[in-house]
Amino acid sequence: MQAAWYTKNGSAQDVLQVGDLPTPEPADGEVRVKLATSGVNPSDVKSRAGSRPVLGDRVIPHSDGAGIIDRVGGGVATSRVGEHVWIWNGQWRRPMGTAAEYICLPEEQAVRLPQGVDFDVGACLGIPALTAFHAVELLGGLDGKSVLVIGAASSVGYYVAQMARLRGARVIGTVGSPEKMALLSKVGVAETIDYKKEDVAAQVKALTAGHGVDFIVDMDFSTTTRLVTEAAIAEHGTVVCFGSNDPGPIPIHFPAWLQRSISIRFFLVYRLLPDERRRAVEGLTKLLEDGKLAHNIGQRFALSEIVAAHESVEAGAAGNVVMRL
Predict the structure, then answer these.
(1) Considering only CA atoms, which of 131, 140, 175, 137 is closest in space to residue 154?
(2) Are strands 30-40 and 170-175 parallel, antiparallel or unpaired?
(3) Position 56 pLDDT exceeds 90
(4) Does domain 2-123+300-324 have CATH number 3.90.180.10?
């Protein structure tokens, strides 16, 4: 099969290569998926760059993807052959991800794609959409509440903004361009703050009559801690965070958090508990079946263009980056 891989950490140009590898066979409890698409996420490029060392001979990158089950291992119903599926945790703690023509993995990690949902969208579900669903679920009841979504036009934030609105929240999003404001307007998010030009905390307080928002969903904790210090979140508010652009220690102003009784919930989508994963998968499936979500597919690349795909993500590409296989 054709695949992309790296044998050491480093820059995309220096370490990624494309060629032929043996086609895998499913073990007991596994399915083999003939992949149509592979999603390229920030965590994938960070892993390749060095956040996760190479274990074994090589790593086929990417955890997200979609395709068709073409073979099953022992104990798996043969009726699954031919099923259109999307994949989660394809390359989490294992060396063979979705940047290849085939992948074998436990059958529960290949989730049925609802009818009418294409493979490009399927490549955006494992990390972006599942992260968004769990983040919004952690907020609890949202009817009549306000939510500030950091990076609301990002691959995760775009789903967060929609899901929070569907649960009755007033959504305020931070963006970095008029184009991203327009994108959010199309899904009903009219209140946006250009973080490159405006003081986010001041604008939040202006929009909420000084009270601050009830919740913040945060994809960059390194720059969001000051929003608590500057009282952009209401007393007894909650911050849900799933990432940070600064990988090192991040100080917080403890008295500001304590005196306002602010809660924080951290999570990593790769490590959802079984019940959390089940609820997220089932909830996301229902939203897809009902046609409730818009998707922001950005650039598309061929497998042979994987270096360009990684460099695009590193450069902050708008929308979800997808490789077609």
Answers:
(1) 175
(2) unpaired
(3) no
(4) yes
SS3 content of the chain, % helix, strand, coil (to 5): 35, 25, 40
Domain-wise residue ranges, the chain: 2-123+300-324, 129-261
- Residues 58, 63, 66, 70, Cα dihedral to 10°: 50
Pick the CATH number of 129-261 from 3.40.1280.10, 3.10.150.10, 3.60.15.10, 3.90.180.10: 3.90.180.10
Q: Please write the tens of the pLDDT for every residue from 286-295.
A: 999 999 999 9
Strands 170-175, 146-149: pairing is parallel
Residue 138 CB-half CA count within 13 A: 27
Q: How far apart are CA 92 and CA 175, in angstroms?
A: 30
Q: Does residue 164 come out as left (phi exceeding 0), alpha (psi in the -120 to 50 range) or beta?
A: alpha
Which residue's structure tokens are 């919930």? Answer: 265
Q: Where are the beta strands (DSSP E) in 26-95?
A: 30-40, 64-72, 84-87
